[in-house]
Each structure stands twice: as C-alpha cells, then as structure tokens.
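Need residues for this backbone.
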C-alpha cells in the first residue's frame, strides 16, 4: 500500500531575497537669505572655483562572481567586491539593468516596496532561462535568485542600477560554492547535484532541505501548480495528493508499496513567493 508523509506547512528556505521597507529619506532644500539679496557687491572680484563632480559609481557587471555569506545574500544592498570566478564564490550575477522607479508619474525611492517587488519579479523571472530548464526545473533545485540595488544614499546621488545574482542554498542557512559559470547549470543532469533533496521524509524528525549533491534519503520530484492566487489552506493542502502519489508511483520499484510526500505553502509563504507545492519521494 502507498504511504504518505504530508508536511504542513511547507518548510521555507530563506532563498527569497528579503525586501526591506525602509523609511524614505527626505531631501532638504536651502535658499539665500534676505541679507544675501541686499548685500553690497564687493569692489574686488574673487575667482570662482570650478566645482568638482564625483565620478559615477561603476555599475555591476553581468557574469561577475562574489563570495557572499548567507545573511549578506539576503540583504537589499551589498558592498562586497567581485572575486575571480575561478576562486571560491557563492553568488554570480546573471542580469544587470536600470531600476524602474517611476509609477503613475511619480518618482519612488529605491527602498519603496513597489520598486523592490518589481525588482524581485524581474530577477526571479529571468533566472530559469539563465541556468537552463524551465520554471519547474528551477523550483526542484536549490538555486534561487537574490537581488541588490543601490543604498538610499547612492540612489540619491544618481545610481539607478539593479543586480540579479544566483545562489545555491545547499543546507539550512548555508550557501554552496558555485562553479565558474552558472549559465546552463541545470541543463542535462544538473539536478543530480543541484536538485532539492531531504535528509528524511518531509515532516519527519531530522528533515532538512539540502542539495542532492549531499547525502540524502528523499528528493523533490514534481511541482504542484496552485494557480495564480492562493486557493486557501484547505484547497492547497489537498491539491497535490493525487499528483504526488502518481509521480512517486512512477518512480517506485513496487507500485503496490511505496511512499510519497507533499508540501504546500501557507498564505504567508505564498505572499513571500512560494506559490506552488512540492511532491517528494524516497531517493
């Protein structure tokens, strides 16, 4: 007989970049005083110094590599310098562009939730094509998109870039070392090492999400489409049962005796970007 391991709620790895809503900086204005307007001109002129203009900051480069820690990878800004991609690194930039900071004719601050949400959507939507495979392949992997933008101060000074990086969350709060290039990393047998696996059945004691390149006993095998809006907890919890049982049965050595698991997101997890369920089976 089949045996299910239903985990609720779905475990979330901290692989979605944190969008921080910071207080919008207020720019002050200054003007001349009445005394300035009525002052008697000096009889001797003083040469006016040519104002110096700060050189614009260098934009990030697509293909650049960085050795980021877990918390740094989830921050909205970063000051880490690029490293040689042949050296150990945990992040690689796959897209660079100009921030969309206008909405309905208004200029938005770089930390505005709408700006950061749009940036997140842009980076997430372009990652699958870069690493190879489709959206479901990406969801069955430990690869995730993180994104960075200028600090408030740098934005006020004119910087308007964004940067999308790919990272691999190989264990709890642990980033994996990446190869020299992540382009096409999930093509072919990429999921053998970068797939999403578990140390135990979902919901069991000792369950952790890890990369399939590490020692594991269970594996994420299929993605459950839950639609474009959260269906509610009851509907989400039942949506994948038949699909996951069928997917695990196709992989089982004995179609009359096998195990399968299903995870689904809560409303909070859905809002954070996990808009799908996952099917699991013993590895």
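Answer:
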């Amino acid at each position: 007989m089949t045996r299910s391991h239903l985990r609720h709620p779905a475990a979330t790895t901290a692989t979605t970049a944190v969008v921080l809503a910071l207080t919008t900086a207020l720019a002050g204005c200054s003007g001349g005083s009445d005394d300035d307007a009525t002052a008697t001109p000096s009889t001797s002129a003083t040469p006016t110094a040519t104002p110096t203009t700060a050189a614009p900051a260098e934009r990030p480069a697509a293909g650049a590599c960085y050795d980021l820690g877990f918390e740094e990878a989830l921050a909205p800004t970063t000051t880490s310098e690029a490293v040689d991609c042949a050296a150990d690194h945990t992040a690689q930039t796959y897209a660079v562009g100009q921030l969309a900071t206008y909405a309905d004719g208004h200029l938005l601050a770089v930390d505005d939730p709408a700006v950061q949400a749009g940036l997140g959507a842009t980076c997430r939507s372009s990652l699958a094509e870069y690493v190879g495979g489709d959206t479901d392949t990406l969801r069955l992997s430990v690869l995730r998109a993180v994104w960075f933008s200028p600090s408030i101060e740098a934005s006020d000074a004119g910087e308007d870039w964004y940067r999308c990086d790919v990272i691999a969350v190989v264990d709890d709060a642990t980033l994996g070392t990446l190869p020299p290039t992540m382009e096409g990393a999930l093509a072919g047998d990429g999921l053998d090492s970068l797939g999403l696996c578990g140390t135990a059945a979902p919901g069991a004691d000792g369950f952790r999400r890890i990369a399939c390149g590490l020692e594991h006993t269970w594996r994420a095998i299929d993605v459950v489409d839950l639609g474009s809006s959260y269906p509610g907890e009851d509907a989400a919890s039942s949506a994948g049962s038949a699909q996951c049982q069928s997917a695990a049965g196709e992989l089982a050595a004995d179609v009359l005796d096998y195990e399968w698991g299903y995870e689904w997101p809560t409303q909070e997890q859905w809002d954070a970007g996990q808009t799908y369920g996952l099917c699991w089976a013993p590895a």
